[in-house]
Specification:
5 helices; alpha+beta; about 140 residues; 7 strands; about 30% helix; binds coenzyme A; Aminopeptidase
């Protein structure tokens, strides 16, 4: 069940974007030790970003890039102490909904192998071999819309 105090909002302001970057810094750079040079990329400029807010405090984020090949979901992160309570699913559902509303026929992502199960639970299926990205094993996963 979705946590009652949590809402998902579309990023519209520079302050909200800074909040998303702050979550990504905590999770990807500090926790997962991903190279800061790789963490932000040019897709951040064209992507639609969402925040998960718990009682107004940012606890998670994600983005979707609308491309001709489909809607690419990524940079999904929930603060470590907030995991396992349904927030990640709310973020993912919101990104898939944005993809649908924008007419995408396919949502896809590069899942870190240890969290494939999270995406499987939302209907994504593995598509292809494991590859390395930012030093972490990943597999492409697809969700036809
Ligand atoms: C992946 C991540 C966003 C999931 O967020 P979360 O808030 O913990 O996920 P939820 O609580 O909404 O989980 C939804 C379901 O997926 C399951 N799930 C969550 N993480 C899982 C995992 N690593 N493996 C298998 N299942 C998982 C949950 O048990 C839950 O199942 P249920 O509906 O049967 O109870 C979060 O673990 C995270 O930020 N990880 C670090 C960053 C990361 O790896 N991002 C993804 C990069 S591809």
């Amino acid at each position: 069940m979705a946590p009652a105090a949590v809402e998902i909002v579309l990023v519209r302001t520079a302050e909200q974007m800074a909040a998303a970057y702050a979550i990504r810094r905590r999770v990807f750079i500090e926790e997962q030790k991903i190279d800061p040079e790789l963490e932000r990329d040019h897709y951040d400029l064209s992507a639609l970003h969402v925040l998960a807010l718990e009682n107004g405090r940012t606890v998670g984020c994600g983005r979707v890039v609308l491309t001709a090949a489909g809607a690419k979901i990524g940079r999904m992160a929930v603060l470590a102490e907030k995991r396992g309570g349904g927030i990640g699913r709310m973020v993912l559902d919101a990104l898939v909904e944005i993809a649908r509303r924008n007419g995408a026929r396919l949502a896809y992502l590069h899942a870190q192998v240890p969290v494939e199960g999270f995406y499987l639970k939302s209907g994504f299926h593995g598509a292809g071999e494991v590859f390395e990205e930012a030093g972490i094993p990943h597999r492409r996963m697809d969700l036809p819309l």
